[in-house]
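Hi L., both proteins are below.
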Amino acid sequence: MPIIEIAHLGKAFRTPTRQPGFVGGLRTLFTRDYTVTHAVNDVTFAVEAGELLSYIGPNGAGKSTTFKMLTGVLMPTSGSITVNGLVPTQQRRHLVRHIGVVFGQRSQLWWDLPLADSLRILQAMYGVSDEAYQARLRLFNDILDLDAFLTTPASSLPKPMPSGARPCCWPPTIWPTLSGSRGACC
C-alpha cells in the first residue's frame, strides 16, 4: 500500500478583482468579479514506503501548494490525498505526529546560534529522545554532510541551507523536504 496517494489533485485560488477608482471600489462592495488562479491542476502520483521522489518545477508550479495540501494546511479544490492512510484535511492532528516537512528556510533556526544548538532546542521542543535524535542526526549527516555546518550560526550558513537539518529532530515516519525548486520524500 502506498504511503502517499494523490489522485487528480487540484487547488484553485479565487481573488476578487477590484475595479479602479472610488466608484469602482464601491461597486466591488456589492458585485464581485473574481480571478481564478489554478496553482495545482490534476496531479496524480503514489509513493511507496522507502521510495524516493523528486518533485521539481519552476517557481509558481504548485510544489509548495501540493506539500501544504499533503500536510493538511490547505484544503484541495478537487481530487483526493491520503498520507499513511489518513486524509490530511480531516485527520491533521494525528497526521502531524508522523510527518516532518522542511521548506528550506533558515528562519526555522535561531539566527545567532550554531546549527547544533538550534537542533537541540528543536529536539527539546518536540520531545525527541537523545537516542532518536542521535540516530536522525547520523542519518542526515550521512545524507547531507552536516558536520561542516554544526558549529556555524544560521546567519552564516551557505545559501541554500542544508535542507535536511530540521527533520533530524522530528519523530516522523515520512520526511518530505522542499527547498527552492527541488523536493524529496522517503
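That was the first. Here is the second:
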Amino acid sequence: MAKFIKLDMTEVVADEPEVVSARAQRFIQLDREKRDLKARLQAIEEELREIEPKLREGFEQGKIQRLTIDGVTVFVHRQLWASPKDGDYKRACSALVHSGWADLVMPRFNVNTLSAVVREMENEGTEIPEEWKDSIVVNEVFSLRTRKRA
C-alpha cells in the first residue's frame, strides 16, 4: 500500500499505482467484452426472431412435436394468455365481476393472473363464462423452447 496526497491535501492510503492501473485495464477489457457480448446477443436474438416463425411453420406442416439434435430438443410450447378484448379493461372488469371473479379485478386486472385462471379452466374442461366472451379474448401463443438432454 502507498500513501497518496489528494488535491485537497488529505492523505489517502491506496494500492500502488501499478495495481490501480492493472485493475483499470482489466475493467476496460471486461467492459469492452461486455459491450461486444451484448451486441452479439442482440444479433442472436434477432436471428432467433427471424428463424422461429419459419421453424414453427415447418413443425406444423410436418406435424412435428419435437426434434432432438446434438442432445438438445426443440419443441412446440403452447400457453394460453387472456387479455381484455380490444383493450377494453372496463368492459372486461365488469364481465369478471359479474361472473364471480371479482377477486381478479383491481382498478385494472392482472392479465398474467387472468391467463393462469383461463389455463386452469382449460385443464379442468371448463368453458370461460359467457359474460367474458364480449370483453376478454383468449389467444393461443406458440413458441419454440429447447431442453438439454439429461
